[in-house]
Amino acid sequence: MRSAVIVDAVRSPIGRRNGILKGWHPVDLSGHVIRALLDRVGVEGGQVDDVIWGCVSQTGEQTGNIGRFAGLAAGLPDEIPGVAIDRQCGSSQQAVHFAAQAIMAGAQDIVVAGGVESMSRIPMGITYSQGPGQAFGPMVMDRYDGRLVPQGISAEMMAEKWGVSRTRLDEISTDSHARAARAIDEGRFATQIVPVEVKDEETGETVTADTDQGVRRGTTVETLAGLKPAFKEDGLITAGNSSQISDGAAALLVVGEDVAEKMGWTPMARVTHFSVVGSDPVLMLDAPIPATFKVLERAGLGIDDMGVIELNEAFSSVVAAWLIETGADWEKVNPNGGAIALGHPLGASGAILMTRLVHEMARVGARYGLQSMCEGGGTANGTILELV
Ligand SMILES: CC(C)(COP(=O)(O)OP(=O)(O)OC[C@H]1O[C@@H](n2cnc3c(N)ncnc32)[C@H](O)[C@@H]1OP(=O)(O)O)[C@@H](O)C(=O)NCCC(=O)NCCS
After folding, report:
1. Whole-angstrom distance, CA of residue 197 vs CA of residue 44
2. pLDDT at residue number 110
3. Dihedral of CA 101/102/108/113: which sign?
4. Does 243 sit in the ligand 1 pocket, CB within 6 Å?
5. Which helix (H) or strand (E) holds 273?
6. For strand 82-85 and strand 50-54, is the pairing parallel, antiparallel, or unpaired?
7. How far away, in angstroms, is 132 Cα from ligand 1 center?
8. Distance (Å, rounded) from C-alpha 141 to C-alpha 60?
9. Quick check: 202 pLDDT over 90?
10. Among 297, 357, 303, 293, which Cα is nearest to 327's?
11. CA distance 360 to 383
């Protein structure tokens, strides 16, 4: 079968809510990272077959098929299409899957896959609260007997089911902040971040932002212990062991390996195996466990064959449960921090994790890499990459 490769992967710095990216319209932010990606590789806009773009809250500035307008904002010719994907937090991981699968099938040759979310400008959950009507529908509500709950409550259920203590949850968060700070200090993100121009509110001057904004240096288990539960009075999940509300965008160039060779583009990694699974939509956040087992089985590989793993830190309890079930080495998981420290701009996160994964695989020379993330509604994607 034809092989699909990632030639390059870029992302914006991740902004805190109402932080560095709040002045960026999500379509413009999308166009900015796509343009930077194509310029870096030397792709002519007219060569692109499609733009497959993840975005979760598809309303207001993010509505109307944001994938199409992302391409136009990037300066692609009118003839180049685009599509918006919603697989909740895994939307842009799914975008990479669709791109690679289209290429492997021989249906397309050169695809831009990625995603965006501006949670500052389009608040999380607004598509549920604004109506008209209510999500899910009476049949599903009956099926689950009114038990469908918000993600924070599912995160509590995860901690309870796997018997994870508050200290363990906060240890995972502490590691996330420390690793992210180390990655920034060592310049590990320098090859993947596309700087953005932002207006300094105090001086009114335009400055260049090139650093993720969410990291809280000096985070310790002790400082986190003082935070109150965010979702349930006697709960364990706090602002300190949850992913942050953020803004960001990321884009990957996915092409046929034969196309890369013909064009003289140096591939970074092959996208070799995929999984997507569902789990109990009430517990919701455990699906990365079966997604991981399924993708490993399809590849004929074990968890210890993975040199680098990106597992979305939606909540520490998701990571803790996944580590217990897979037996993965925590040192290989999110080595440069995750969504707890760096942020989680929903529709962009799948592509952000994939960008971090492929660059880290290249940095350390890891042959295989794995990505998985939990998704609203109780689904999860799994991807295995192989360094070229
Ligand atoms: C958990 C959540 C509700 C917290 O929101 P919030 O209260 O606005 O969060 P903040 O960043 O303001 O943090 C709250 C407090 O915790 C503190 N805090 C957060 N992280 C901290 C850390 N690492 N160290 C010390 N204090 C920390 C903040 O300083 C703040 O304190 P303050 O109120 O005294 O300023 C929100 O982040 C959330 O919903 N996260 C999950 C997002 C999500 O569901 N994504 C999709 C599914 S994965």
Report:
1. 24
2. 98
3. negative
4. yes
5. strand 269-278
6. parallel
7. 29
8. 27
9. no
10. 303
11. 15
pLDDT score at 250 = 99
Nearest of 189, 261, 365, 381 to residue 7 by alpha carbon: 261
What integer is the mean pLDDT of 174-182?
A: 98
Residue 204 has pLDDT above 90, yes or no: no
Phi-psi region of 60 (alpha: psi -120 to 50; beta: other; left: phi over 0): left
State residue 224 phi and psi, 5-degree precision. -70, -30
For atom 43 of ligand 1, the residue with the nearest CA is: 243
The sign of the dihedral angle between the CA atoms of 55, 61, 63, 66 is negative
Write the DSSP string, 37-74.
HHHHHT--GGG--EEEEE-S--SGGG-S-HHHHHHHHT
pLDDT of residue 201: 79
pLDDT tens by residue, 311-343: 999 999 999 999 999 999 999 999 999 999 999
| Residues comprising the chain, all counted | 388
- Give the C-alpha separation, 240 to 235, whole Å: 13
**What are all long-range contacts of 69-72, with beta carbons under 8 Å and residues at least 24 apart?**
69/27, 69/30, 70/27, 70/30, 70/31, 70/34, 70/116, 71/31, 71/34, 71/112, 72/31
Residue 343 in contact with ligand 1 by CB distance below 6 A: no
Q: Can you give the pLDDT at residue 200?
A: 83
Provide the whole-model pTM. 0.98
**Residues 84 and 58 sit within 8 Å (Cβ to Cβ):** yes
Ligand 1, atom 30, residue with closest C-alpha: 239
Q: Exposure string (b/e) for 110-133, b if CB count within 10 Å is 16 or more? A: bbbbbbbbbbbbbebeebeeeeee
Coil, helix or strand for 327?
coil
Strands, DSSP E only, in 279-359?
308-311
Q: Which of the listed residues 154, 227, 319 should we mutate to test ligand 1's pocket, taking the one with most ligand atoms within 8 A of CB?
A: 227
